[in-house]
Specification:
Length: about 110
């Protein structure tokens, strides 16, 4: 019983046949040739697309937009600088945050319903 279980989990080693022809260059590297485009289309390309969308969102920020930062702070933009935004969290409560900390732009009027 245990031997059958071990054979199921670990493949038994058998003696190889006599030395034959070694695999060709294509046969040796085909997994690598398949993996490179796979990594590009599944990992690199979607990441570049997300970065482009984030950059476009940050470029479109305007005074009066309602935003949420990566830290979860929601507020209204009251001033825009080159690198920093002034965000109004409540009446007369202003906080400066980096533009890169903005995660989403909320639809107008969202803060009133919170």
């Amino acid at each position: 019983m245990t031997l059958m279980l071990l054979d199921f989990l670990i493949a038994p080693a058998y003696a190889q046949q006599a030395a034959g022809q070694s695999p060709g260059l294509f046969e040796a590297f085909w997994p690598l040739l398949v993996m490179i485009p796979l990594f590009y289309f599944l990992l690199i390309r979607p990441q570049m697309k997300r970065q482009k969308e984030q950059r476009q969102m940050l470029d479109k920020l305007a005074k009066g937009d309602e935003i949420v930062t990566t830290g979860g702070i929601a507020g209204r933009i009251s001033g825009i600088g080159e690198v920093y935004l002034t965000v109004e969290l409540a009446d007369n409560v202003l906080v400066k945050v980096q533009k890169s900390a903005v995660s989403t732009v909320l639809p107008k009027g969202t803060l009133k319903t919170l």
